Amino acid sequence: MATEKSGNGAKAVWVRKPSGPIVPPEVAESGFAWSGDSGDVLDADSCIVSEVLGEISLALSGKDGLCGNCRVDLAIAEKLLSAMVRGDAEPGSVERLSELADEASARNHCSAVAAILEPLVSSLRFFRSEYDAHVLAGNCPAGVCKRLRPAPCQNACPAGIDIPGYLALTQRGRYREALELIREDNPFPWVCGLICPHPCEKVCVRANLDDPVNIRYLKAFVAERALGDSAFGPAVTVAEPNGRKVGVIGSGPAGLSCAYYLAAKGYSVTIFEALPNPGGLLFYGIPEYRLPRDIVKREIETMRSLGVEIKTGTTVGRDVTLDALRREGYRAFFLAIGAHSGFRLGVKGEDDFTPVFDAITFLREINSGRKQRPGDRVVVVGGGNSAMDAARTCLRLGVREVHLAYRRTRAEMPANPQEIAEAIEEGVEFHFLTVPFGIGGESGRVRYLECLRAELGEPDASGRRRPVAVEGSNFRIEADAVIAAIGQQPDLSSFGGQIPFAVSRRNLVLTQAPHAATKAPDIFAGGDAVTGPATVVQAIAAGKQASIDIDHYLSDGLGFAPLFMNRKRRPREFASIPAAEKARLQRVPMRLEEARVRARNFGPVELPYSEEEARHEAGRCLRCDVCIRCGACERVCREQMQIEALSFRTVGPHEQMLYDYERPASRCICCGSCTLACPTGAMEIRQAGGYRELSLCGTVLNRMETIRCASCGEPFVTPRYLEFVVASSDKSMGKEVVRELCPECARTVRAREFASSFMPEKH
């Protein structure tokens, strides 16, 4: 049986490799008799384009079995595929490749080429999207083609923000440009700069030296600095109106993002929001101490600047039906209603005593301005971000004791670790391995939460160990109110019994993932209504994909719409900085308002960076958008030149990074071999002002004064390089050469001496 490469699931089967077809697993199982000896499984870490290129190159290296015409065609195919994996392919390359393969395979006089091209022909049929991704999106879905791979931080960002680009601009103080670059992919830079869980920082390569760059907060910094008190328009280019109307149901981050990108394409977009204010959970779910409302309102104004109409207080399905909107000319709908219905605890006494809230309802009341203290002692049940928000909000309302009961340990809590730490600092009392099973009270009022101690058993479907209640371990947490923060789901009640799309057992809208299409042709869905509670940046990505799907549908596109993919961008210029300084730049910690002060008001918890601190922090970026961490420079320095001036560390299966930034200053000879080996231009060598300088993405690794030519006076080589040449060349060849002339002058002198040897002596 064929084995998978990394356990990431089979995406294709290469039957009878190397000359058989590449097909989806279900096609292989139904139409071919294949086994481990006759085929290979290609998983998510396999690049089909690279695999096909390798086999065609191997076939071309042979000498027999191909006529001249077929060899030419294969050479053209090899050239097109090579350009794809390098990122140099021109638009139309996939079409040209497909035509070439079909023509060459159809020839009757040369059967060998048909077999060689079968993997290409079949993979173009079944996996055309991988080829398109290389050419149109400049991205290798498998991450194999290194020159197409965005920086790890950008690749981890659901919205695909060019993170190294905006950090480079921030370092130079070009905040307006940095903001506009962010907003090409994320309409909410200020919002995300304050509340994003920053998956980008979890893969930041800088963490292998010390700590990741504070990518998240720097978005908020540039937004605040660039905007000031001035108005700002959209970062996207707005197309001419196309006369097509789209309705967006829900004004959370998914709905707003979809509206943003559709409006930019010329669509007439109307957002229907059931609540009095737009923003969804940005406005009603996230407390003000994390996300001030004026920032939400300001970023929503971007939508209106694109011509998007927002109708609040309008529930689709109740106040207006989809059919009525269709009669008004709406040709497609994006369902982005979020997950505003909280789950009940399902324990005895829940319906018998008050107050018992779900977290989403509690937070909506508070964020609507009704800041009423629920009691003197409150228990919040749950371990996610909503639980943290509810518990910390209670403190700010003046609740004397706030308890949080969670059925697992702190290590398993899904909440942001920073939120957990801040909640503990502020005085929330945590009860881990605690399973509620009843609410008790008197006269209809809550007096306690009945609980059991728990132990962790075997892992459940989430991969976390399942809590198992310990019999007889009953205890009570005294409380005046209970808040359940154990999950949320969409509220579909406005559609009554006529829901026009399919839903799951958890009441989530079913789509043709990763696309936004539902079973109703003109209805698309995304965000929390599809995934359940997720992050704002994931909702933004869902809205972006939905805009692509809707545009494809209304443009009469065939098949599935293209998938949004992170694309490697044009690199921003480097900032010059000495290596020792770059290596010693430490992360600027976020300062927080004192816990005892912040826990009593809804003011911001985080205190802002100064301009100097922000630029310092942005300068810590290693520019992984240019350096692809291939290690070619280190290998040529070690193996070819045998100097070993570059000290690299392995940071991934196929990645290395410079670790010792100060070593080159003592060992590098500034020969430039590493710059010739570098495939991306990350390594640079410059000669000016009597010095020769080697840098990696702007970080100056070595700077040496050069020797001047004894003839013309121009600098031409460093002393250390000259010593290397003398030691490795002249001595081994038994020559003693006086090396005091630059190459040009040396050639002139040698030519003159050679010519003079043929000239007759003068008498």
Give a description of the structure:
This protein is of the alpha/beta class. The chain contains 29 helices and 29 strands. The strands form nine sheets. It has a five-stranded parallel beta sheet. Strands 9-17-10-11-12 form a five-stranded parallel beta sheet. A hairpin with a 2-residue loop joins strand 26 (691-696) and strand 27. It is globular and about 130 Å long.
Present the secondary structure layout:
Elements: E1 10-15, E2 22-23, H1 25-31, E3 39-43, H2 48-61, H3 68-86, H4 93-105, H5 111-126, H6 128-136, H7 152-156, H8 163-171, H9 175-183, H10 189-195, H11 199-202, H12 215-227, E4 245-249, H13 253-264, E5 268-272, H14 281-284, H15 293-305, E6 309-311, H16 322-327, E7 330-335, E8 341-342, E9 356-358, H17 359-367, E10 377-381, H18 385-396, E11 401-405, H19 417-426, E12 429-431, E13 434-442, E14 445-459, E15 465-469, E16 475-478, E17 481-484, E18 488-489, E19 523-525, H20 528-531, H21 536-554, E20 577-578, H22 579-584, E21 591-592, H23 595-598, E22 606-607, H24 611-618, H25 632-640, E23 648-652, E24 655-658, H26 663-667, H27 673-677, E25 683-688, E26 691-696, E27 699-705, E28 707-708, E29 715-717, H28 719-730, H29 743-756
Parallel strand pairs: 4-5, 4-7, 5-6, 7-19, 9-17, 10-11, 10-17, 11-12, 20-27
Antiparallel strand pairs: 1-2, 1-3, 8-18, 13-14, 14-15, 14-16, 21-22, 23-24, 25-26, 26-27, 28-29
